[in-house]
Structure formats: structure tokens, C-alpha cells
Amino acid sequence: MGETNEVAVDWRAADEMPLREILAEDFLTHEKNLASPGFWALAAHRLGKRIERVGSRKTRQPLEVAHKLLATGVDWLWGIRVPLHTRVGRRVHIWHFGSLLLNARSIGNDVHIRHDTTFGPLRAANDNTLEALPVIEDEVEIGSGACVMGAIVVGRGGRVGANTVVIEPVPAGATVFGVPSRVIPT
């Protein structure tokens, strides 16, 4: 008697977790596959974010070089680039590798991303500020070949179909397909 079946929920943001804990969670998210390119892309990104916090420039410089080598290796080997300014949530699963540029303001928790995906500004390089980048909220599914461009939000639980070009906000829970995207009734 007196037992409860409550499960403790960990509400910490990815950036608030110790590096080994968030990497362990990413490892589980990528099906305990140490060879998963998605795991290594996130590991490089998370390492880079932690290195930014190192106070001493003398200590930080060799770590920045190590991060740059790891991130460049991930980009060259598997074609996955996650810029350091992108805030990445927990349990993000990058399912495939090849031609992924995830240049977003933020990527939420429990997001699934497939190959040939591009997040970025709608205009050319002259509009590459954080405000010009998309926000991918929690529990979003991104299909292969999708482009999510501009200062838009893909709402919580949204689904972006394969080869869809998204340049308008996606309402929470909506499914979008097409070029340009349009909401598909469910």
C-alpha cells in the first residue's frame, strides 16, 4: 500500500543538462546505435554549445578546434550541418543522413527529421539573422526533402510532408504538403 505509479518527468532543457546525460539521451533516441550519423551530428552540436560556456579563452581555443574538426567531419562524412546558433531540444531524431542543413532559430523536443532537409532564411545571405530563421516546435515530423524557410513557426505536432516547401506558418497539429505548402485536412 502507499505505492504510486507516478513517473518523474524531467523538464530540463537540453542546454541545462550535463553533457553526458544529454548525450546518453541522444544515444537512446537514436536506438542505441553508436554508428548513427544523427547521433554524431547532435553530439558535435551539443559539445560545441558546452565549449561556448568555457570561461578561459586559453582553455576554450583547443576545445573549439576539436569541435570544429568533429563538426566538419560530420558534415563531410554524412552531410549534416547544425549551426551552433540553433537551439536544439531533447530527443531530436535525425533519421537519415545526407544533405541536411538545420539552420533554425530553434528545434523543439521530440522532433523527427529525415534526409535532404533544409531549414534556413527565405532570402539570400543578406537576411541571415536569427530572426530570419524558422522555429520548429515540439513533436514535429519533417519528411524527406522538406524545405522550411523564413521567419516562420512550425507549430507543435505539425507534420511537413516529403518534398514540401514551407514558407508560411504551420498551425499546431496541421499536416502540410506541396510546393508551396498547403494544409491537408485530416
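The record above closes out task 2.4. Task 2.5 opens with a second protein, given below.
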Amino acid sequence: MSAALAAGASLLLAGATDHFPTHGDTPRDIIDLSGLPGLRAIEARADHWWLPCLATWSDVIAADLPSQFAGLQAAARQIGGMQIQNRGTMVGNLCNASPAADGIPCLLALDAAVVLSSGRVLPISEFVLGPRRVACAPHEFVLGLRVPHQPAARAAFLKLGARRYLVISIAMVAIVADLQDGRITQARIAVGACSARAERLPALEADLRGQIPSADLVHPHHLAGLTPIDDVRASASYRRHAALELVRRAVAGLV
């Protein structure tokens, strides 16, 4: 398989829910991974959760996962309809690397790492390089994702689109946070659809430590690193405003 991939003659597919609608037929040979055993079951391991490459969005929704995954499961319920959730894979959504991919902010907030077939392990921030670009060599493919245990963490996912379901996001935010005695001890927050790739908000994460969750803690300068664009769905200024409001709601929702 690695040789075929390195030669550029073959394309790996699992769910293919984005590939064919976007690219139509392809002259390249397709290697269908969907029948491989042992690459679908989500499971807890010694120091992390294992999310394998064939796990579908429906698998994520149905899995008995701790509260740290509440945001990812909420995102899964809003990705397409039931047919897409049954067929589409979480790793496929990641490798597609759309700026508006709903799963990627959640994976950033979960501090997930990508495990490649070569043995390389990369954090999500180093794996996703930009629109439709990932740090996967021609001979490699993604085996799955590692998510460190954070069982008591609170998590959320908020998304704005032109309608409730079956829509590409205008802006979205994912948050995973630990609280002790009502105060935030650590938080990871990521915003999607407002830059070439989903981005964490490190300045806000630092300012939230030791604070009681409140929307008033979030200010425009915390989102200064985002680079939203104008397109048919929204203007850049509207995206920035929407992202600020979503982040405020996500932080306040930790209470």
C-alpha cells in the first residue's frame, strides 16, 4: 500500500462523502479502506483515547465517551444528515482540511495528535497546514488519533450557519476546560471558518486561568490572530463579530 501511495497511482478513501461530490470520478486507482478490521472501534487506552481512522461520525455520537468529548459529539450531530454521519469519517474530515471543517476545532481543543502509518505522531496544529493541505507524506496515511485523558473536563461546540442543519459554518468555536472550585484551571479554545485553518486562542486561554467563567472575560483582542475572509456566506467583519459572540457564549457556558 505504501509503495502504491508513494508512486501517486492510488488514492485512499474511506467514507468518500466529500471526494466524489467535489472531484467527481478520478482516473487514479482507489484503495477502499472501509473493510479493514480493527480500524473503527473507539477505545480507552492507558493514557489516551484512541479514535481510529475508520470511526464514523455516527460512531462518535454513539460512543460512551467522557465529558471532554461533549463538543466533538455535538459537532458530529451537526455534520450533514444521518446518511453522511453513517458514512463519513472523522479522520477523513480532518484530512480534507477544509477551513470550515467542524471536527478540527474540536480536535484542537482536545489536544489530539495524529498517528501516521510511518510511526510519526503530530499534533493537529502541525498536521493541518492550510486549506486542503496536511503534513502527510505521499507514502503515509493516518491510522488514527490520540486524545489524552481529561475525564472531568467540560466541553462545548457552537456553530453559526445560515440555517440549523446541512450548512457550511460561517464561524464555529470548540472549548475544553478544567475547573476547580468554580475557577478555570486550564482551557483550550479553537475557532474555525475564520482563518485558512482552525486556530487556537492562546492569549485568551492564558487570561482565563484562575477566573470564574464569564462572557466579560473575552475581548476582541483575544481574536486578533484570526484572518476571516469575505465570501458568499458572510463578510470578514461579520465572521469576526460572530466568532467573538460564540467564544463569549462558550466561556460563559462553562458555569
